[in-house]
Design brief:
It contains 16 helices and 11 strands. The protein is α+β, with helices and mostly antiparallel strands. The protein has 2 domains: 204 residues, Cytochrome Bc1 Complex, Chain A, domain 1 (2-Layer Sandwich), CATH 3.30.830; 192 residues, Cytochrome Bc1 Complex, Chain A, domain 1. Strand 4 and strand 5 form a beta hairpin.
Length: 420
Amino acid sequence: MFTLTRLASGLPVLTAPTDGTAAVTVLVFAGAGSRYEIEKTRGISHFLEHMFFKGGKKYKTAAEVSMTIDAIGGDFNAFTGKEYAGYYVKVAAEHAELACDVLSDMLLHARFPDEEIGKERGVIIEEYRMYQDTPMYQAGWDFETLVYGDQPLGWDTIGTEAVIRSVKQGDFMKHKQALYTPDNLVATFAGKIDPGLAERLAKKYFGGIGGTKDGTIAKLKPHAGKHVALTTKGTEQAHLVLGVEGVSALSDDHFAQKILSVILGGSMSSRMFLRIREARGLCYYISTTTDNYLDTGLLSTRAGVDQTRLHEAISAIRHEYELAAKDGITKEELRRAKDFLKGKITLSMEDSEERAHFFGKQQLLYPEVRDLTEYFEKIENVSAEQINKLAARLLKKENLRLVVIGKEKEEKKLEELICD
């Protein structure tokens, strides 16, 4: 269960208490992901996330921030996605006020000093290079670029080196003032916390946040393009992502798509895992996942395979897609997938951080916040017929898109494997 109140400023305060834990997570969500960027600001959302930790009025440096949380054995971190960013501190419940103190000092009083901006440029550029050297991650980002093209949803969240090297203090201030406003934030408390205490802490520490949102998510443009993106590189494995553009998080088929991905490759008893990894030994890792946005989504399978068996692996994954589209799923698979999905969510709710994320993201992005009972009802209401119709609609060869990073040199051959 959860409770939702609002401060005088309009800031939503969502509290999701739970028994059986001694921890509390305070997580502030912001509608400030990379879809709010334009070409000349690509990467500023992620860079700003880093800069919030560089000190404010009370905790003046990054060292003071980290030592304050480390001194009580807490965890703190942040993340930037396409549609939102988040900042959290997870501590023993008796330190909930300190968590709010640290977060509010960052969000209200961050100074973005020039010398820290200079240092952090190097850190982010190294992060950028690290991901380029980690093909199992880079392939996923390349897949979004392939599907969505040259627009914010198709851009890497980390941005461009040109922007990273040129962004200034004033740019950060402007971005913060435009998007870190009460009508574009959610203060989320989860774990061992009383809703009344959460509201009092929110009022004391986040009540001073003001302003009105000045920015919108970039509208998704038509994005037909190539079917294949190949990066020829001397990797030990060939890394691939094969999938399609799917439905949005607001679609009536959202939960059907989730269940379909579980059946295809979401678990160690899924079709992809048993038939491609276990039966044929084609790969070490293989999984099918969904990415869910407000106006679109992705369903994709990624794998790391022996360079000499890349074509075999692509054909095998495509075959599983075709079987799902043609023959559909079984009642037994549907039951197992529903129970798997509900079980994983139930386990995750024991972690206050995951609990805060589950509820806070819904409040920030979606028209309604579902508690677990309502969420599970949505899962249970999905029928085999609904999934079969969705699979037949999505998993057509003309919809397939493929990213490969490895020693392969012939893009045309890859295109033949998925289009012919």
